[in-house]
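Fold this complex.
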Amino acid sequence: MDNNITRFEELLVKNGLKRTGARLQVLEILSGRDSATSQPYLEQVMGKVVDRVTLYRVLQAFEEKGIIHKVLDSHGTANYAICSDGCDAHQHHDEHVHFDCDNCHKIYCLESVKIPVPKVPSGFKVQHLNLIATGICSACTDKVN
Ligand SMILES: [Zn+2]
Ligand SMILES: [Zn+2]
Ligand SMILES: [Zn+2]
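Structure:
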């Protein structure tokens, strides 16, 4: 726990962000889960601490700095997940498949499953790729069997 706080503080400092309770708490929530965290859930949990606008700004700053990435699920709801080390303020590298479980509705980052960059006509430049797979996650499969 204390180790985590230090790690999060370092992450904020490294990205030129001031250390605030709200920022630390959002990092703690997002990194403590094995799947992406939905914005409604964050609003619910953080609602006791900060207002919606503050939360929105925290998320926006984190996204800009390459700390978290946003995943829209099949309902268009925003979910947030911690980025891998490869992301920074200049470029995200989250071209991995996201898995939306039909049963538990968790969104997983399948970091090891990269999305192939499609060949686009000259003059076009791919900057963001998004691929969501839906189905049954391994935890739910285990439950069924
Ligand atoms: Zn990223
Ligand atoms: Zn599941
Ligand atoms: Zn992801």
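The radius of gyration is 16 Å.
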